[in-house]
Amino acid sequence: VNTIAFSPDGKKVVSVSNDDVVRLWDIDTGKVITKWTGRHMHWPLVTDVIHLPGGQRIMTSSRDGSLRVWNLESGKQIGEDWRDGESEVLSVALSLDGEKVVSVCVDDSVRLWDVDTGKVITKWTGHTSSVTSVCWNRDGGRVVSGSYDGTARVWDVESGETILAIKTGTGPVSRIIYSPDTMMIATGVDAGFIKIWDSKTGRRVANLRGHTQEVSCLAWTPDGKMLISGSWDASIRTWNTTTWEQI
Fold first, then answer.
1. How far apart are CA 231 and CA 218, in angstroms?
2. What is the pLDDT of residue 55?
3. 151-156 and 142-147 as β-strands: parallel, antiparallel, unpaired?
4. What's the pLDDT at 41?
5. In this structure, which long-range contacts are made by residues 8-16, counting pairs with CB atoms below 8 Å and at least 24 apart in sequence?
6. How much is the pLDDT for 88?
7. Between 84 and 186, where is the model more confident?
8. d(CA 178, CA 227)
């Protein structure tokens, strides 16, 4: 299982996995409500999934270079594939207002899509290797991306310009996320380090050591008091964001 996404009402969760099957689960019963598989599904490998506004649609991304929108009730695809070139799509993220989606690809770019039209609004370039992770800030005016080129970039959504570039100095960035107040950025790298950055200045705030392999996921608690990290070293760790010590 590569990723999961909760429905807006918190009653269902959708999962995508290496068998190229997308499953919709009922949280109360733990049972599969429906699943998407077979020749009409992406191939190869569904990489990410998100719920779209209204709770009746999901979007999937794939290494086949496309985004697809699905009706949850019927299980049928809505409209045509969203495409902009053939580059493999690694991840997608929905803006808080539900009007835009950003996707990251192996072609070093970040694409901004209009949810209503399914068209690319703009493509941001600047990374020199595959973009691995992306996150919106709280007000939707900024997007931060991490890349195998070892940098994090903050993009101004309206202008499309890079307003901050951070050289992490510790190898490829595998995961990136804003803090809830968007004052800090956390980056995880394939060496197992987590670094915390000031989102306005790019100054390093902390360097968290503990994982021994690639950091594959990061999450802040809503109050911002803890950062949670998962890794290929088979551990999940929690960190105090005041002292930056491992809890």
1. 9
2. 83
3. antiparallel
4. 60
5. 8/51, 8/53, 8/54, 8/55, 9/55, 12/72, 14/49, 14/51, 14/58, 15/49, 16/46, 16/47, 16/48, 16/49, 16/60
6. 84
7. 186
8. 11
Look-up: residue for tokens 């990410």? 48
Q: Is pLDDT of 39 > 60? A: no
Residues 113-136, mean pLDDT to the nearest whole number: 93
| Interatomic CA distance for residues 75 and 126, integer angstroms | 37
Q: Is the pLDDT of residue 134 over 80?
A: yes
Q: 228, 208 in Cβ contact below 8 A?
A: no
CA geometry: angle 227, 219, 213, nearest 5 deg: 80
For residue 134, give the amino acid letter.
V
Strand partners, 173: 189
Other beta carbons within 10 Å of 139: 11
Whether the CB-CB separation of 104 and 146 falls below 8 Å is answered with no
- Residue 39's Cβ-side half-sphere holds a number of Cα atoms within 13 Å equal to 0
Cβ atoms of 70 and 79 within 8 Å: the answer is no
- Nearby residues of 24 by Cβ (< 8 Å), 6 or more positions away: 12, 13, 14, 32, 33, 34, 35, 58, 72
Write the burial class of residue 42 (CB in 10 Å: 0-12 exposed, 13-18 middle, 19+ buried): buried
Q: What phi and psi, each to the nearest 5 degrees, are found at residue 41?
A: -90, 165
3-state helix, strand, coil in the chain (%, to 5): 0, 55, 45
